[in-house]
Amino acid sequence: MTIIGGTNKSGDIEPYSICCQSGDIICLVGPTGSGKSRMLGDIESLAQGDTPSGRKILINGEIPSSSLRTSAIGLIAQLSQQMNFVVDLTVREFIALHAESRLIPDPENIIDLILKTANNLSGEQFSPDVSLTQLSGGQSRALMIADTALLCPSPVVLIDEIENAGVNRKNALELLVKEGKITFVATHDPVLALMGSRRLFFKNGGIAGIIIPDEEERLAMRYIQKVDDQWTSWRDQIRNGGVLHLDDSKKKIYNRLIL
Ligand SMILES: Nc1ncnc2c1ncn2[C@@H]1O[C@H](COP(=O)(O)OP(=O)(O)OP(=O)(O)O)[C@@H](O)[C@H]1O
């Protein structure tokens, strides 16, 4: 997929073309209103200079046919921030229905794999027999990420911020890469932003820079992830009624850090 730059909100030329391949994670960062969702919208609609940004999207170097544009639902999967189910089905029935719609001949194995993967991604385990409408936000998102990665043939996945609570974001992105998806993630979260193979920085509706994380950033990311893991573990302990205990070495480190 190639994204050919258009114009920003002031009408200035966006001097970038971005070529993406299977397994790429492209993170979109920038202040609120800077144009991240517009970019996701342009990709979703396979824009041809006909959106406010004037961007154009090429597939395998070519302008997509009008039939590909109208059936873009098959090429592009989108995980939006809001996840509300309106069907009265259990988790297993829902995945089975999706597998049936994809004409998968013997779906039991894939259903089990999606259930297992979704439970690995989710902070809180859930049973295949629970109703979709009873899933928490994090569980719903974990289910949809596993379903998108393992059952959707769409090679491109658009994610509008994976919420911190309830989803292992690192594993989620690794799963999408392993399944060969091109993943675009719009985010305000530094941990997610640093996980990309490229980071597009947005300003005033246009791409203002492209950053490829170097060794220094990779090191910073590993450190931030450690802090994030510690934070998650404390959060889980506290919400399960636990009490935080620090051994002497930790007390010394924290005393030094807060000075
Ligand atoms: N290149 C552009 N040309 C014209 N309008 C644009 C352009 N980019 C974005 N816009 C418009 O600016 C508004 C804000 O953009 P957008 O919603 O994409 O921001 P965002 O970065 O996703 O914000 P947030 O982080 O709050 O979700 C939208 O109405 C969008 O259509």
TrEMBL record:
Among Gene3D superfamilies, the record links this protein to: P-loop containing nucleotide triphosphate hydrolases (3.40.50.300)
InterPro entries per the UniProt record, alphabetical: AAA+_ATPase, ABC_transporter-like_ATP-bd, ABC_transporter-like_CS, P-loop_NTPase
Reading the lineage from the top rank, the first entry is: Archaea
Keywords for the protein's UniProt record, in alphabetical order: ATP-binding, Nucleotide-binding, Transport
Read off the Pfam families from this record. Answer: ABC_tran
Which intervals hold domain ABC transporter?
A: 1-229
Any one Gene Ontology molecular-function term assigned to this protein's record? ATP hydrolysis activity
So what family is this one in? Belongs to the ABC transporter superfamily.
> Know the name of this protein?
ABC transporter
Query: From what organism does this protein derive?
Result: Methanospirillum lacunae
Q: What is the lineage of its organism?
A: Archaea, Methanobacteriati, Methanobacteriota, Stenosarchaea group, Methanomicrobia
